[in-house]
DNA sequence: GAGCACTGC
């Protein structure tokens, strides 16, 4: 875009520039900057009034992406602020006309209705054809029939078919290729045509089989005929013929054309080179037919499409607002998206769109628009970003479409548990009691907000600088943030050879994965270790296509991981002063100890994603117990969940694990598994633990290296109150902690200068922690003074002495005989 | 022993 505009304005790239996440060419001379919504959002965080700009244009606002929505909310406040300053900012929101009311009629957003400028689209007319009836189930079969019919009866022009997923894309491609074989016949024809060319040497080539096409546009009669033939086929199908394909194939081969069809798959996860085939002209004498998912609706535009076949279906990811469990469901699209799909037929000339559903279904069952993204996904990252901008009351923000309270609440709860937000402060004022309590960003939260990843991963990065682990954590987080690093789905095999190849590839992959996982702590890091090794070894080999293919890695994904690793490495170095890491293409695998520490960091980020294995049910168990075989219990869910079979820990089944997410397919499956130890829970997931009282045996102690009072405590974890064994922890902050500190101080464990008086103390230091200690004034006095100055560690004690060198002097004198008082006064404070 | 649409920091 920036290139093209620069050219048309006769300017250079220095003046018309662009900026996206990973790259840009902005210079000090830049006057017009093209950027993504996320980039502008980051700029608002740095300079709220966007003082660098005089005009902001938001394009594609109707797509309602989360960052665009938030930007519009922010800009609705920034524009008046700039006006007040006398430094005007113009805002132009560009949106497909249909949806403009979302912005213009929202009085919370724009107090005064903004003027609307309508611009007609430059589109060729597209004739819409609805099906008379809507197929109940087999929309794929219906799509197949429609493509056959178009190809058989209508003039030349590319066909674009919308289906919902890669499997469907491949299935339909295969069926179409079988029916209109391209190889063989097509090649013969091409040879023939070449021969003809040589023979006649005419300048005008006869178009292949032009006679087979009806040149007239389809009239209603033809349509009715076509529908009738549909009826016939469907009736036959209803009678119990399972294989509609073969029948259709016969029908078509005997009746109509066998003109080859050049069929291409298209979906986002497809490799770049396979995707870009759709942009090349099809071989001579062939009609192009692209079978695509939603990528072809907005992201990619295929040239020369004259016919669109729309199943009307989409596959969408859904989240459970409470549990966070995700599922994929196939539903009707929206009217807006249906029209967008139809529009794809009218880019180079008049076109036709065949909708495989009735107009009644379209009118009654289709929503006007697809739901805005912000109400369909967890918002924890957005809430953190907004709190970072000091927007504390999320509910008051002028969202074009506000996320619902449950989503926001879940996000705040998570962020509080991660330590990114303060515990909610309940207002004491009566009138505020009904309001939701405010949570504010913490210093940790501010660090986390700087990392462009999910808050859980940001927490891992914030902890990773300890023990030289940051390079590993960066690589793992980068890997986790990129979708589908491993090729786990295959297109259905076309031949026996392919089938065998797939099988051996899958076997080889699972061996490699096992090898990558290793043993010991490395193996217990589980799927994340496999990910780390995959990234490490791919980079070591220079991230070649060959290496990726051989090891079942998606090349595009690995490239993305590389870029994200670089970005995270930069950010980490900027945000964490002592980080100082570099992007090492030859990163060595972590040591056993490091792998253990990484597991602990992973737990700290996924404290709410812990699961525990159910005990194996006995042979005579009832149904509910039987369902728990190999199953896990997790904190948020009542139903049993399972380790996904792709996990390296699938067979291992460790007792305690953390998972990245749960997806519901045939079962509730956890993915991205690492094993943890239950003793770690109180340390790395403290907000989910309820601690017991400090145990008497073993007794509390003073840890010199940590300068902490330590004690043993048992605890329970989570909603289901799992018992966690006794572990050594810092003594909880309460009055008893001061008592124990006083005791260790008197025993000479804290400052060496007090050691020599231990034998002459008038009461035993242990009286400090006895319940009857109140009876003695000297214990009471010491305790009071420690509490008053907040002294419960050596560090705080030294500070208190810095302020007041006589601190505790009188009190301590009460513990030792009079004869020593002068000496003590002379050497106070007893630091050495 | 499974089965994932799409995009932005």
UniProtKB/TrEMBL annotation:
A GO MF term: RNA binding
Protein name: RNA helicase
Keyword Ubl conjugation listed: no
Lineage: Eukaryota, Metazoa, Spiralia, Lophotrochozoa, Mollusca
Example of a GO cellular component annotation carried by this entry: nucleolus
GO BP terms: maturation of SSU-rRNA from tricistronic rRNA transcript (SSU-rRNA, 5.8S rRNA, LSU-rRNA)
Similarity comment: Belongs to the DEAD box helicase family. DEAH subfamily.
Keyword Nucleotide-binding annotated: yes
Domain Helicase C-terminal: 135-390
Enzyme class label: hydrolase
Native species: Mytilus galloprovincialis
Sequence ranges assigned to domain Helicase ATP-binding in this UniProt record: 1-116
């Amino acid at each position: 875009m920036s290139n093209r505009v620069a050219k048309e304005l006769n300017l250079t790239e220095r003046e018309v520039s662009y900026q996206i996440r990973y790259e840009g060419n902005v210079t000090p001379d830049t006057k017009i900057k093209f950027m993504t919504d996320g980039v502008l959002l980051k700029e608002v965080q740095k300079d709220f009034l966007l003082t660098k700009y005089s005009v902001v244009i938001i394009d594609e606002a109707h797509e309602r992406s989360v960052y665009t929505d938030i930007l519009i909310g922010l800009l609705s406040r920034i524009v008046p602020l700039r006006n007040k300053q006398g430094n005007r900012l113009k805002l132009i929101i560009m949106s497909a006309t249909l949806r403009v009311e979302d912005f213009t009629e929202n009085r919370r957003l724009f107090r005064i209705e903004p003027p609307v400028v309508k611009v007609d689209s430059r589109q060729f007319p597209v004739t819409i054809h609805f099906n008379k009836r809507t197929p109940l189930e087999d929309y794929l079969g219906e799509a197949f029939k429609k493509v056959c019919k178009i190809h058989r009866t209508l003039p030349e022009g590319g066909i674009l078919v919308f289906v919902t997923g890669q499997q469907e894309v491949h299935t339909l491609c295969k069926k179409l290729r079988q029916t209109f074989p391209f190889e063989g016949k097509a090649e013969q024809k091409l040879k023939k045509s070449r021969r003809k060319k040589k023979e006649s040497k005419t300048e005008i080539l006869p178009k292949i089989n032009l006679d087979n096409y009806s040149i007239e546009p389809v009239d209603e009669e033809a349509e009715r005929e076509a529908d009738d033939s549909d009826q016939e086929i469907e009736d036959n199908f209803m009678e119990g013929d399972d294989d509609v394909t073969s029948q259709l194939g016969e029908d078509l081969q005997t009746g109509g054309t066998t003109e080859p069809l050049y069929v291409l798959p298209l979906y986002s996860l497809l490799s770049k080179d396979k995707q870009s085939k759709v942009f090349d002209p099809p071989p001579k004498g062939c009609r192009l037919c692209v079978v695509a998912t939603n990528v072809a609706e907005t992201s990619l535009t295929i040239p020369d499409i004259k016919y669109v076949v729309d199943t009307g279906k989409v596959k969408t990811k859904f989240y459970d607002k409470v549990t966070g469990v995700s599922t994929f469901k196939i539903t009707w699209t929206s009217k807006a998206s249906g029209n967008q799909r139809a529009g794809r037929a009218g880019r180079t000339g008049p076109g036709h769109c065949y909708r495989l559903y009735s107009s009644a279904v379209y009118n009654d069952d289709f929503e006007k628009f697809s739901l805005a993204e912000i109400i369909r996904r967890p918002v924890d990252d957005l809430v953190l970003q907004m709190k970072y901008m000091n927007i504390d009351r999320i509910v008051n923000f002028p969202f074009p479409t506000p996320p619902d309270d449950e989503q926001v609440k879940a996000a705040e709860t998570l962020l509080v548990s991660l330590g990114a937000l303060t515990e909610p402060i309940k207002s004491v004022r009566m009138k505020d009691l009904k309001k939701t309590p405010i949570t504010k960003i913490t210093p940790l939260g501010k660090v986390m907000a700087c990392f462009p990843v999910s808050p859980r991963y940001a927490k891992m990065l914030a902890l990773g600088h300890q023990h030289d682990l940051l390079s590993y954590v960066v690589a793992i987080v980068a890997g986790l943030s990129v979708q589908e690093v491993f090729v786990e789905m295959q297109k259905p095999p076309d031949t026996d050879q392919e089938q065998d190849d797939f099988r051996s590839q899958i076997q080889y992959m699972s061996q490699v994965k096992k090898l990558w996982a290793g043993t010991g702590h490395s193996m217990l890091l589980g799927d994340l270790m496999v990910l780390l090794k995959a990234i490490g070894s791919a980079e070591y080999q220079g991230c070649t296509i060959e290496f990726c293919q051989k090891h079942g890695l998606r090349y595009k994904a690995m490239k993305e991981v590389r870029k994200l690793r670089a970005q995270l490495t930069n950010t980490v170095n900027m945000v964490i002063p002592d980080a100082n890491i570099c992007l090492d293409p030859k990163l060595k695998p972590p040591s056993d100890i490091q792998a253990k520490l990484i597991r602990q960091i992973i737990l700290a980020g996924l404290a709410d994603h812990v699961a525990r294995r159910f005990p194996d049910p006995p042979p005579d168990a009832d149904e509910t117990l039987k369902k728990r075989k190999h199953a896990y219990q997790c904190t948020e869910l009542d139903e049993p969940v399972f380790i996904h079979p792709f996990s390296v820990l699938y067979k291992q089944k460790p007792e305690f694990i953390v998972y990245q997410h749960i997806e519901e397919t045939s079962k509730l499956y956890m993915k991205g598994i690492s094993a943890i130890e239950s003793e770690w829970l109180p340390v790395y997931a403290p907000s989910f633990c309820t601690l017991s009282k400090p145990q008497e045996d073993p007794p509390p102690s003073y840890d010199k290296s940590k300068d902490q009072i330590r004690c043993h405590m048992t605890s329970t974890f989570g909603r289901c109150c799992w018992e966690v064994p006794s572990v050594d922890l810092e003594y909880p902050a309460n009055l008893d902690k001061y008592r124990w500190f006083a005791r260790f101080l008197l025993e000479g464990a804290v400052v060496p200068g007090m050691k020599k008086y231990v034998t002459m103390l008038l009461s035993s230091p242990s009286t400090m922690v006895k319940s009857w200690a109140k009876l003695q004034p000297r214990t009471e006095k010491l305790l009071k003074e420690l509490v008053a100055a907040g002294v419960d560690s050596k560090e705080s004690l030294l500070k208190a002495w810095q302020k007041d060198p006589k601190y505790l002097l009188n009190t301590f004198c009460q513990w030792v005989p009079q004869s020593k008082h002068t000496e003590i006064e002379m050497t106070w404070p007893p630091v050495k």
